[in-house]
Design goal:
The chain is an alpha+beta fold. It folds into 3 domains: about 5-55, RNA-binding S4 domain (Structural Genomics Hypothetical 15.5 Kd Protein In mrcA-pckA Intergenic Region, Chain A), CATH 3.10.290; about 60-125 and about 210-235, Alpha-Beta Plaits; about 130-205, Alpha-L RNA-binding motif (Alpha-Beta Plaits). Helix content is about 20%, strand content about 25%. The chain contains 6 helices and 15 strands. It has helices at about 5-10, 15-25, 115-120, 140-150, 185-195, 225-235; strands spanning about 25-30, 30-35, 45-50, 50-55, 60-65, 95, 105-110, 130-135, 150-155, 155-160, 160-165, 175-180, 200-205, 210, 220. Strands 5, 6, 7, 8, 11, 12, 13, 14 and 15 form a 9-stranded mixed beta sheet that branches. Strand 6 and strand 7 (about 105-110) form a beta hairpin. Helix 1 (about 5-10) crosses helix 2 (about 15-25).
Amino acid sequence: MQLNKYLAHAGVCSRRNAVELIKKGLVRVNGAIVKEPAYVVKETDKVTVQGKRVILEKPVYVLLNKPKGYITAASDPTGKPTVMALLGKHVPQRIYPVGRLDQTTTGLLLLTNDGELAQRLAHPRYEIQKEYVVLLDRAFSERDRKHIMRGVRLRDGMVKIAKIFPFVGAKENQVRLVLHSGKYRVVRRVFEQLGYRVKALDRVKYAGLTKRGLPVGGWRVLTSRDVAKLKRIAKLET
């Protein structure tokens, strides 16, 4: 594997940033500085970045149906339960959440040790599609639906929602929406801007992946077909 790709797959940085690290002389292979990004790394090679060993583990991709009450992090200094606790010791590789769901939000969360894919999926440039079901504190109005579709300006910029489907009848305070934005707490902030309180928020689709067959708190390792689909969406060669 080429050195820049090796660093990206090991989760050090993106492939483009890896080229910069290499050209600056910050990467060593078997103790020697290598400044050629296309240098081919062998299985027996020892790679370090600024003196720290870089180890390429077997790539693992896990889809989790996150329950309420868990922190989206590998660890929490305050001792709050994290999503990693749901996996137990079943995944020996060091994997990390892609993006973030806040503690009270439920639904689909991807975890992986594929650093380059994770960075692509989390980057706004690639407009990864996410779908949520939102429970509001009151009925959702048609006027507000039109307002949201025109765009909602938040403190950190304008947010465009791709699609929004209000429920009818007994579920008139429930909304399904599709968006590409990766802004922090974006769904909650959009509705709060219009005077609603979000009582529950569930991510039901992520980058084409669904909750089918995944109970709350359940998880599964993605199939090779799932992974190939994610890489196509993220515009990575497979």
